[in-house]
Design a protein that fits this description.
Elements (H helix, E strand, L loop, with lengths): L2 H21 L5 E2 L1 H6 L4 E8 L8 E3 L3 E11 L4 E6 L12 E9 L2 E4 L4 E5 L8 H10 L1
Parallel strand pairs: 1-2, 5-7
Antiparallel strand pairs: 2-4, 2-6, 3-4, 4-5, 6-7, 6-8
Length: about 140
């Protein structure tokens, strides 16, 4: 075998090893029910904040700045308490959807700082029909 063939085979082997190692980082979106079945494994869940008065957001920076808890509802209507071990995300109450990456422990979805949370807020550039109508009536 020529040296160029050996180098090419080594390069192909390195590329395959890198691709296989990256496949472990790929994740799919789960529901809260399927996350319960995979208890202890890191999963990604898309849900919306439960804004009912019975389930307020608990965050007290004076007591513990790295503890936030709230309740979410997934697309199938399943509810769960979420404990986020970091400060409360800004404008969380205005969110349309929340992407949670963490682990289910019993009935509680736990998110550590290394996992994360992504808040999807409504666009401030969305047209508001009432505001547009008021603007037209004023002119």
């Amino acid at each position: 075998m020529k040296k160029i063939h050996i180098v090419a085979l080594v390069c192909i082997g390195v590329v395959i090893a890198v691709l296989i190692s990256m496949m472990g980082d790929l994740s799919t979106y789960e529901t809260l029910a399927s996350a319960k079945q995979k208890e202890g494994k890191t999963v990604t869940v898309i849900a919306k904040l439960d804004k009912s008065p019975q389930t307020p957001i608990e965050y007290n920076a004076a007591k513990n700045a790295n503890y936030t808890s709230f309740h979410v509802i997934d697309s199938l209507g399943n509810k769960a308490k979420v404990v986020y071990y970091f400060e409360k995300p800004f404008d969380m109450e205005k969110s349309e959807r929340i992407v949670l990456k963490g682990k289910m422990k019993g009935d509680v979805f736990e998110i550590t700082r290394k996992d994360g949370i992504l808040i999807k807020c409504p666009s401030k550039y969305k047209d508001d029909p009432k505001a547009a109508q008021n603007n037209l009536s004023q002119n």
